[in-house]
């Protein structure tokens, strides 16, 4: 872990002094967040180590969480509704679920296809609840995103580009259908969006912000009912 952090710091300083400082501070924040709550959210998990089918591995990306500092920065930039459901798509070990609960969202739901990652996320949620008994409701759902049934309660979708273009395209179609079935204000926040062309000039999901901090670039879309 120390070697990985050292290598990250070396890479960060190739991006200029401002981004370098932001990136280095993010590493420290991640360590402090896990240490403070006695959690395990930092270590990455390679695709081949995920306990999912070979077919699903063809469409998935490795587990690599959005950094806590980056999440807090993008939340500070946006005036998001606290009511409704905040959904982390591809929640992995649950870091964003805990941060969203800290941020004050009424209900937080994490969707994750890997059973082993779901177990870790549920364990992290349980520990977090012991340390933060007043935190928001948090639920981990073990499911393929393509099997998830949106019910119209979702107001924020957050994801760190967890899958490839075909699955992303289908997921966006699901959101559009949900908006047609249940008109509402809805935000979509994507860290490291690899396929922005899928939402170029979209009729329902309008880009409202592109925000860069450290090594992260967030694409934010908003549907106003």
Could you give a quick summary of the protein structure above?
By secondary structure, this protein is an alpha/beta fold. The chain has seven helices and seven strands. The chain has helices spanning 2-12, 17-37, 54-57, 68-77, 95-103, 115-131, 165-181; strands spanning 85-89, 107-112, 137-142, 154-159, 186-191, 206-213, 216-223.
**Can you write the helix and strand succession as a string?**
HHHHEHEHEEHEEE
How large a portion of the residues is in β-strands, by DSSP E? 15-25%
Query: Which structural class do you get from the secondary structure elements?
Result: alpha/beta
Number of strands: 7
Contiguous low-pLDDT stretches (5 residues minimum) are: 1-13
Strand order of the largest sheet: 3-2-1-4-5-7-6
Search tags:
single chain, 225 residues, alpha/beta, 7 helices, 40% helix, globular
């Amino acid at each position: 872990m120390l070697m990985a952090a050292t290598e990250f710091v070396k890479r960060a300083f190739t991006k200029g002094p401002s981004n370098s400082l932001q990136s280095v501070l993010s590493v420290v924040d991640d360590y402090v967040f896990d240490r403070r709550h006695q959690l395990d959210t930092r270590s990455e998990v390679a695709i081949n180590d995920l306990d999912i089918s070979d077919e699903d591995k063809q469409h998935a990306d490795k587990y690599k969480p959005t950094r806590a500092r980056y999440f807090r920065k993008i939340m500070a930039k946006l005036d998001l509704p606290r009511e409704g459901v905040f959904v982390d798509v591809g929640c992995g070990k649950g870091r964003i679920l805990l941060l969203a609960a800290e941020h004050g969202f009424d209900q937080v739901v994490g969707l994750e296809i890997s059973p082993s990652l779901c177990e870790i996320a549920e364990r992290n949620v349980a520990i977090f609840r012991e340390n933060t008994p007043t935190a928001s409701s948090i639920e981990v759902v073990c499911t393929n995103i393509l099997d998830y049934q949106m019910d119209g309660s979702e107001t924020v979708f957050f994801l760190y580009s967890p899958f490839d273009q075909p699955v992303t395209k289908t997921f966006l179609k699901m959101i559009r259908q949900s908006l047609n079935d249940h008109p509402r204000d809805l935000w979509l926040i994507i860290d490291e969006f690899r396929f922005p062309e899928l939402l170029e000039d979209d009729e329902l999901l309008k880009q409202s912000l592109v925000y860069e901090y450290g090594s992260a670039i967030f694409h934010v879309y908003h549907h106003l009912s």
